[in-house]
Amino acid sequence: xxxxxxxxxxxxxxxxxxxxxxxxxxxxxxxxxxxxxxxxxxxxxxxxxxxxxxxxxxxxxxxxxxxxxxxxxxxxxxxxxxxxxxxxxxxxxxxxxxxxxxxxxxxxxxxxxxxxxxxxxxxxxxxxxxxxxxxxxxxxxxxxxxxxxxxxxxxxxxxxxxxxxxxxxxxxxxxxxxxxxxxxxxxxxxxxxxxxxxxxxxxxxxxxxxxxxxxxxxxxxxxxxxxxxxxxxxxxxxxxxxxxxxxxxxxxxxxxxxxxxxxxxxxxxxxxxxxxxxxxxxxxx
Length: 285
Ligand code: 5RP
What we know:
The structure is a single chain. Helix content is 42%, strand content 15%. The protein has helices at residues 8-17, 36-39, 48-51, 66-72, 106-111, 128-145, 157-162, 175-188, 202-207, 223-235, 245-248, 253-266, 270-282, and strands at 19-20, 26-32, 61-63, 82-84, 86-87, 101-102, 116-121, 148-153, 193-196, 213-216, 240-243. The two termini are 32 Å apart. The longest helix is centred in the middle third of the chain and has 18 residues, at 128-145. Strands 1, 2, 3, 4, 7, 8, 9, 10 and 11 form a 9-stranded mixed β-sheet that branches. A two-stranded antiparallel sheet has the order 5-6. It binds ribulose-5-phosphate. Ribulose-5-phosphate binds next to strand 11 and helix 11.
């Protein structure tokens, strides 16, 4: 992974969340818990003090919004924080999901001891320009403090329908082309890390993006399938995951994050990781 272009502060913050494996490759397992900023109290995050606190220590980094961080998470846990700072939308207005603004300032992120901020960018939406500008503004401010910027390839309601396998689906939609296009624009406008979705031909996405890539989990699917796309993403060059629902909505969230880590950091196959998951659940590793 190329840490070279960054200054000492950003490099040190990246090193807090990306861990080297035996081959000297850097990977991360981030736990995404930012959903309530536009979902409200969603399953698994209704009271994060009960559901998320116990699994935070397993994560290499967490990505909450400010409300969950300040009121629900333990400040004595040293897991690095990438703070969600854009919002202004709500699932009650699905057609307006892309209308995001900067809600939380970089100064607030510094006060909360975050190592970075996350921002959604909605390419090919009504608010494409506005959300790219959010990213650029935050990147300029964050660089003053050496904070990392995680740029999220956000899929609003319309696009979600077009992605194969989501909603009604659309066989003519070329997901790899879209995610390569969106991810590179996110890199060029200031992101130090690009968050995107796994798709067929993911190598095309990887080839056009030089910063570290982390994969979102998406809607809850069976544990075996989530482990399979994690494995496929890492094999195709992703540097890790920023996974939410497929961890905190799993039957056993603490065991699931450990199974995901076994793939990302130890190179286990999905079947091996599933055995680890089952054994941890039974208390017989
Ligand atoms: C929206 C987001 C989500 O809030 C979240 O981080 C995604 O996590 P998952 O899909 O794994 O539940 O990034 O753009």
